[in-house]
User: Which sequence fits this backbone?
């Protein structure tokens, strides 16, 4: 199954994509993770992307479309995948239509007021993409999956988060209508405990846990 996760920053796309991918044995394709790794490794794409990400804006469509198009050609995508953070603009969605066919779009719904608190407490692993919240880490500073030191994302400062939210509502939220017109959108309440969000997404996909 080819699935898109849509939702504002902090809605839980990465958290749930990791869990659903493990359950369905398909890869998570997070454009944010790909870009952060590129920045860390100082690749040409990373150098180009850094200023946009640091400001909470979007990386230009052509850069990100090429990355995703190439990634979807890899072998592990044959049985499906979750796109986490792509598409994010109507031109990206139109481009995606030309090289892949989607089966479902999960819209994770969380009110803006909740998102800033969630994001300010987030810690991430840049190596494997695992996501945590300080309130549940009990002082642990290393990734439970791969042992890497956890960090706070550079774009998780409150003023940058507010800009990311603005950008989401202006440029990405219109995709709910874009995919709604195709009958693909399943709206899931993201403001309940993580296990309940997981169960709702599995049910929306018609998948067995
Ligand atoms: P990206 O990395 O995609 O960031 P985002 O969309 O802003 O989303 P986040 O990763 O911040 O949130 P999330 O929904 O994954 O939440 P998470 O699971 O971590 O993109 C970053 C940047 O890269 C963009 O701003 C842009 O510059 C660029 N970019 C990426 N893709 C692009 C594209 N297609 N085009 C152009 N530019 C692009 O959860 C958040 C926190 O909440 C965690 O601490 C978690 O533990 C906690 N949490 C999760 N679920 C729950 C729950 N149910 N209850 C309580 N807490 C919870
Ligand atoms: Mg994420």
Assistant:
């Amino acid at each position: 199954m080819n699935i898109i996760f849509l939702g504002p920053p902090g809605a839980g796309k990465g958290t749930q994509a990791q869990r659903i991918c493990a359950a369905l044995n398909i890869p998570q394709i997070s454009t944010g993770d790909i870009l952060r790794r590129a920045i860390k490794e100082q690749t040409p794409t990373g150098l180009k992307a850094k200023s946009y990400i640091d400001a909470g804006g979007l990386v230009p469509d052509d850069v990100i479309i090429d990355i995703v198009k190439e990634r979807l050609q890899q072998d592990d995508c044959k049985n499906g995948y979750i796109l986490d953070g792509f598409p994010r603009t109507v031109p990206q969605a139109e481009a995606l239509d030309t090289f892949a066919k989607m089966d479902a779009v999960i819209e994770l719904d969380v009110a803006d007021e909740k998102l800033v608190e969630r994001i300010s407490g987030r810690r991430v692993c840049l190596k494997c993409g695992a996501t945590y919240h300080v309130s549940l880490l009990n002082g642990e500073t290393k990734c439970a999956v791969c042992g890497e030191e956890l960090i706070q994302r550079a774009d998780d400062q409150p003023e940058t988060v507010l800009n990311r939210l603005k950008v989401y509502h202006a440029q990405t939220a219109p995709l709910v209508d874009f995919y709604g017109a195709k009958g693909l959108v399943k709206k899931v309440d993201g403001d309940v405990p993580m296990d309940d969000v997981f169960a709702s997404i599995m049910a929306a996909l018609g998948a067995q846990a």
Remarks:
- DSSP finds nine helices and seven strands in the chain.
- The pocket of BIS(adenosine)-5'-pentaphosphate (ligand 1) is lined by residues 7, 9-15, 31-32, 35, 52-53, 56-59, 64, 85-88, 92, 118-119, 121-122, 131-133, 155, 164, 190, 193-194, 197 (CB under 6 Å).
- The longest strand covers residues 104-109.
- Strands lie at 2-6, 28-30, 81-84, 104-109, 122-124, 131-133, 185-189.
